[in-house]
Amino acid sequence: MSTNAKHYTTPEEYLEFDRASEERYEYFAGEMFLMSGGRARHNTIIFNIGGSLRAQTKGGRCRGFANSQRVLVDDTGLYTYPDVVLVCGQPVLAHGDTLVNPTLLVEVLSPSTGNYDKVGKFDHYRKIASLAEYILIAQDKPHVMRHVCQGNATWLLSETTDINAVIELPSINCQLTLSDVYDNVGFSEPRELIN
Question: In angstroms, rounded to a whole number, what is the distance separating the alpha carbons of residues 11 and 70?
């Protein structure tokens, strides 16, 4: 008989723990996952995106949150903290503090979570009925991937690596300019190996 059985955490236990914690945790299928803190480049990109979208949505019907708004994917039971969240219209909150109707989600890719954000997390996110756009931002080079809901559970992917590109975000009536997204990020060139 195994003594290493994992404890199943209920959503209620997770929420109580997460609210009291100074760190942020994701939750899925009875397990909690500590979210690692972003590094300088990651945080700079989030700050740049948040600032740009805040300026464009000021006084409008959309409001934004930067990496501190818990989101619930009701159909799958995933509780998560996207890097940037925008909701247009009235926010709908589960448990009083967990958003269930985001319009646009942004994730800044990290080496440790990039594949999960591209595939696993997107599998969850696209089950959110209100979600119109999902944006993935690389932090090691200019590269933005934009998924747009086409209806009937169909999503269209477009991407760019052009630092001068402007990405239209019609779901929130905004745009992102890559040069603004990557302002003060400072990409470093790979070092040559010395023999």
Answer: 13
| 107 CB neighbour count, 10 Å cutoff | 24
- DSSP conformation letters of 50-79: HHHHHHHHTTSSEEEEES---EEETTTTEE
8 A C-beta contact, residue 38 and residue 178: no
* Residue 188 covered by a domain: no
What is the residue-wise DSSP string for 107-167? EE--TTTHHIIIIIHHHHHTT-TT--EEEEE-SSSS-EEEEEEEETTEEEEEEE--TT-EE
For residues 26 and 124, what is the distance between their CA atoms, to the nearest angstrom?
Answer: 13
CA torsion through residues 106, 151, 97, 121, sign = negative
CATH number at residue 136: 3.90.1570.10
Number of separate domains in the chain: 1
Distance (Å, whole) CA 17 – CA 51 = 30
Q: Name the pTM for this structure.
A: 0.89
Q: What is the pLDDT along the chain (195 residues), one digit of tens a residue?
A: 445 567 899 999 999 999 999 999 999 999 999 987 668 899 999 999 999 999 999 999 999 998 889 999 999 999 999 999 999 999 999 999 999 999 999 999 987 666 677 778 999 999 999 999 999 999 999 999 999 999 888 999 999 999 999 999 999 999 999 999 999 998 764 444 444
